[in-house]
Design a protein that fits this description.
Layout (H helix, E strand, L loop, with lengths): L16 E5 L8 E8 L3 E5 L10 E4 L3 E7 L1 H8 L6 H11 L16
Length: 111
């Protein structure tokens, strides 16, 4: 099953993998990876504001990648199936909320 994920991805990322935004207005928001665009961008969805039909385009450098992958979502996406907003929300709930990384207390630094 893992072999069918290798095409169309990069850096070992897989559809259904959990990522967290670390840059931008959505900093701290958790998403599921639903696709790839070009060689630098990920298409992510949270099932609330961003669905699989209208994913958010995020620069690979602007996300923190989690090792957690929802196998159900991964199999649906790689099999060419459609993923609903409810399925994305459930998958994020199953994968659980991750704690912010050390030192990021939500405050902006001085520039």
């Amino acid at each position: 099953i893992d072999s069918m994920v290798e095409e169309g991805n990069f850096a070992g990322l897989r559809p259904g993998q959990k990522v967290r935004s670390i840059q931008g207005r959505d900093r701290g928001q958790e998403y599921l990876l639903v696709g790839f665009e070009g060689d630098r961008f990920l298409l992510v969805a949270d099932g609330v504001k961003r669905t699989a039909e209208h994913p958010k385009r995020k620069n690979l450098r602007h996300v923190q990648v989690s090792p957690l992958v929802d196998r159900e979502i991964e199999q649906k996406i790689t099999g060419g199936g459609r993923v609903t907003a409810e399925e994305i929300r459930r998958a994020l709930a199953r994968l659980g909320k991750t704690e912010p990384e050390e030192g990021s207390n939500g405050q902006r630094g001085c520039y």
